[in-house]
Design goal:
mainly alpha, Helix Hairpins
């Protein structure tokens, strides 16, 4: 018994919307980065779903590229957050203004 493709796409859309809400609503930098990771993983789920449905491996190859971008984003993002925390002693995005004199 196979799970229909619609279930995977609905799950992916729900994950993506959760990520969007996390980016727009939350002000904590770590949670914003986690929400971006959630959106990238939902895109991966969609790519894998269509790759499996269509019977080719192109989507699976793209998933490796998305995972590489997500890993680089996580490493650079965490380094930026740590640097900002050391200077400003907060990770709240509303309180961080590096362009202010």
């Amino acid at each position: 018994m196979q799970i229909p493709i619609e279930y995977y796409l609905i799950l992916s859309a729900a994950l993506f919307m959760t990520g969007i809400v996390g980016v727009l609503i939350r002000r904590n930098a770590i949670i914003v980065f986690m929400s971006i990771e959630l959106m990238l993983n939902s895109a991966n789920l969609t790519l894998i779903t269509f790759s499996s449905y269509l019977g080719n491996s192109i989507g699976q190859i793209f998933v490796f590229f998305v995972m590489a971008v997500a890993a680089a984003e996580a490493a650079i993002g965490l380094a930026i957050i740590i640097a900002l925390f050391r200077n400003k002693l907060t990770v709240n995005l509303d309180e961080i203004n590096i362009f202010k004199w």
